[in-house]
Amino acid sequence: MSPDVVVVGAGAGGLASARALGALGLRVLVLDRQRTPASIAKGEILQPETVRILDSWGVLDALRATGARPVGRLAIRDPDGGPLLCLDYADLPGAYREILCADYGDLRGVLADGLPATVEVRWGRRVTGTLRADDGRVTGVRVAGDGGEQDVPAALVVAADGMSSPLRRAAGVTVERREYPHGLVAFDVAEADVADEVTAYRTGRGLCLVYPLPGGRCRLYVQVTGDEFRGRADLGAWCDRLLADVPAVRPIGAAIRASLHRRQLLAVYRLRTDRLAVPGLALVGEAAHAVHPMAAQGVNSSLGDAETLAASLAAEGGTPAPASVDRALRAFEAARRPRLDHVATVSHNASRMITSVSGLPKLLGVRMMRRTAANPRLLGLTAGNLSGTDVRPLSLVDRLYQLGLLTDRHARVPSPPAPSRSERS
Ligand SMILES: Cc1cc2nc3c(=O)[nH]c(=O)nc-3n(C[C@H](O)[C@H](O)[C@H](O)COP(=O)(O)OP(=O)(O)OC[C@H]3O[C@@H](n4cnc5c(N)ncnc54)[C@H](O)[C@@H]3O)c2cc1C
């Protein structure tokens, strides 16, 4: 096939882009360096906006059929399970009011199965660089495969090659990548049927996140310091400490112990590029942006990128003429940048509320959480922003309410901070 578009990367962002661009009738070639898609612990909490997009693409029923777990509430709780801040998605406006918790492999699978006939996916093809015209415009990619290197020209290249994005580097886009001062350890816990809720426990050690997964499993993320798992960590003693720190997870304690050997240790980053597009090339998904995983925004943003990119090309007639493509890329950048910056701010603030373990950031986090919990209007705004279905940035006045520097007469009086068991000890 001689493609109009080459998409580099067959993660959620790449497959969504292929789906949306193929639906315009464009010939799309997707290349991924993996021979078979890897099973990765990420992209599992799918916010209502993602559910809406998947429904509009006709793949939602297929995802539900994989056993994806519907969840109606996001809750921040103390280590004993007492509520600190609950976002009830049933109160969201519109038709999409639940999260789906799915395996990332299943999400990729249903996106790949639902691709239009003009889209081809080739696995085991590593893109090694971009092709350029004399004026610097990106005009295709260079690919390494079984038969050596090959040039693949295309009117548009979509870089969906993940956070380290070799293509972003090759296109000369600069990136600001900041590592959070903590990591996460992830466990896939079998035979642990937990409540239909995404629960973030705010503990003395920071975040402990639990949510259900298909097949009676659950995901557990625990915030860790850099050296906690270095060397020969005593996993049994580590688990004892976790269960002492977070009594609410004791009912699944035995299942957690059984899953300790399947842990994944993850560094956590936030990332922002200075541009989302250069002539001939668009960045989508984690190649362009990453936020703290506890905000569960990555798939929302990746699918939103794909939807907006396709809409921008459609507005230019959906033709692969380079001048139309470049106008569409400018429109894509203008439409996505404010939304992505907003998501980055919301995600960073939400993660700080829970992951800050000392000093002023912790005090501010606790204060903002209590004031938000006591204010139905701020709760509604927060739920709309995290779900992606009702996005309205908080005003300066809202921030002053959250910090307690202004009083909102419609808010309840925040309950006094109750020290949790782990914080008392
Ligand atoms: C621990 C963790 C938990 C998360 N949890 C959530 C969550 O609950 N909800 C949520 O919405 N988001 C979550 N996210 C974010 C979400 O996973 C990402 O936003 C999403 O996976 C981005 O998809 P992507 O397609 O951009 O990248 P990826 O899924 O990383 O896909 C990139 C693809 O590019 C391919 N590739 C790379 N280089 C090349 C090359 N040179 N040639 C060809 N192919 C190449 C790779 O093989 C890969 O398949 C989480 C992230 C992390 C790290």
Please report the first level of CATH classification, the CATH class of the largest domain: Alpha Beta
CATH architecture of the largest domain: 3-Layer(bba) Sandwich
What ligands can be seen in this structure? Answer: flavin-adenine dinucleotide
What number of domains? 3
Radius of gyration computed on alpha carbons: 22 Å
Q: How far apart are the termini?
A: 65 Å
Q: Strand-residue fraction? A: 25-35%
Figure out the total of helices. 13
How do the strands of the widest beta sheet line up side by side?
6-5-14-15-16-13-17-20
CATH topology of the largest domain: FAD/NAD(P)-binding domain
Which shape, going by the Cα principal axes? globular
Tally of DSSP β-strands: 20
Helix content: 25-40%
What structural category characterises the helix and strand content? alpha+beta
Task: Point out poorly predicted stretches.
Answer: none
